[in-house]
Amino acid sequence: MSLLYDLLDFNKEFIDNKEYKEYLTDKTPQKKLVLISCMDTRLTELSTKALGLKNGDIKHIQNAGAVISHSYGSTMRSILVAVYMLGAEEVMVMGHHDCGFGSLKPEPMIANMKARGIPDNTFDILEHSGIDIKNWLKGFDSVEESITESIEKIKSHPLMPADVPVHGTVISPDNGKVDLVHDGYQ
Ligand SMILES: [Zn+2]
């Protein structure tokens, strides 16, 4: 395996050539937005480029499915940090069509875990600990519904200020077209 070393070799040249200079900015988002989008490989750059956003413009949180699963998980905490400490004034939840997480079924993933050596009784232990592993590893039927649920979780959070608009959008990974699902100003 050499990926790590290839990356580090590239980094050395990147630094030597001072290529970082074009990315220099500060930690306050110029556009005062925190964007939650999916970790899909097709969206690494497309999700921001399609909205005209560049380094320094936004706080960008990415996870599988652009989903807020837990009100006190790290994604929700990141949103609150962005709003209270880093100058974000608006929030956008951006889902996308053809989402790998959306179509995720727990059974094949659990089968893969077992094939990779996770013992059967681990799943029993988790279940007895009150962890609904199947529900945790389940995607969503409709990206629009998933976005709406995440928006509701953000807006109803007891620590979220009421004056922060929370928008919902869906992006196409094929051409970057962004459709509005929820206008947070309304
Ligand atoms: Zn996705």
TrEMBL record:
Pfam families in alphabetical order: Pro_CA
Superkingdom as given in the UniProt entry: Bacteria
Keywords in alphabetical order: Metal-binding, Zinc
EC numbers for this chain: 4.2.1.1
UniProt cofactor(s): Zn(2+)
SUPFAM superfamilies registered for this protein in UniProt: beta-carbonic anhydrase, cab
SMART domains: Pro_CA
CDD domains reported for this sequence: beta_CA_cladeD
Broad enzyme group: lyase
Catalytic reactions of this protein: hydrogencarbonate + H(+) = CO2 + H2O
Family assignment from sequence similarity: Belongs to the beta-class carbonic anhydrase family.
Protein name from the UniProt record: carbonic anhydrase
